[in-house]
Amino acid sequence: MHQKTPLSSSGTPAELFMGYVDQFSYRKDRSDRAMALTNFTFFAGAGFSKAWDARAPIGCELFTLDTRLIESVAEAGTLMRMFGLNASEEIDPDTLRQIVYQLDMYDRFPDVRPRYLDEQNLRMFRGVLRAAVVDRYDKFTRLNYFDESVGGFPLKSQTTCQRDILNFFRHLRFGPAAEDCPTEGVRTHFITTNYDYVIETILDNLTSEKKSLFFNTYRGFTPTQVLGSRSFAPVHEHWRVQHLLKINGGFEILRRGSGYVLDYSERDPGAIMADPPIVTLASREQDYSDPYFKMVFPKVVRLMRDTTVLVIVGYSLPSDDALIRFFLRQFAEEPEDGLGKVIFYLGPGNDEDKRKIIAEVFPAMERMRAPHLVPYDGGFDEFARECLQHLGARNQAPGLPDAPASQA
């Protein structure tokens, strides 16, 4: 058992990160003793998808909606009377927040519903809003739907950024070894606010073993079906599993009775309206009442507590996003919990601003110097590229402490 000690700040962020990867990695066939498994968790916001595909929508872009689909369930006059919308206008993010908030209140308090709103057309209204969000995403850059002909998420022409990101995660999983002999020790997990299939595409293209993604990825719940079949592992083996936890839901998550399925196929707007995915929409008061979130949120908390290296990618952590900050706080609930843990905070902006934001989540961080913060001013693709430049150096970065006891 190693003593947890404050982590060194010497070296560039990329040098430090690759030093930790080397420190916590090992090969089973070269070790004569049991070794700890160490969780490296990537907390991915919209900037993660933007690094993968420059066309991906970020911020308010995804929640500026066309009223064309909405008029299929509500007449233009109704939209004007209820929400002040003209038929020719787009729904801007602030208006969408107000609409979703009103729908939530109508669901929660039936007595305040207008004369002609009921359980059924409220459900239709929510379905069309979700269909409009999918449509909006596809207008920026198409979702990378599962391709039955290749048995996976296709990636035919990789950009330089995508190649760097793939090679970065390939090294985390396999190290310098071949794909059939992965390196142990480092466990890569994902928590994301995104609805899209970027992370699935990355994981699916790390190896030629196409069953690996669904067999070895835990979603925080056990789907009753994946792509129409049950060809997945209902109960996972701890040593080989990665987490992919979508805290705002995903375009592929569909409800079936009391359970859920994963459907990555392309569906037309009518099908989406009739069978909408589990996603939270922008609102003045976020609604996480669906049982999906009650299953996934405890897994997010457990994973955060069991993580040693946390990488926050492309998420600005606005002060009004209290739930996300609550989840991050679980990484080190008390200052002592942060000893021997490190946060890499990636994204455009100066170091001092990042430090202030993280200090709001961990008030004792500056006094206790725990968890240790490594800010990085740049996109994830740039960070991945810089990390790859250090693959030739097999020694740990100067000043790295002994590995703390991991709780993976």
TrEMBL record:
Q: What is this protein called?
A: SIR2 family protein
A Pfam match is SIR2_2
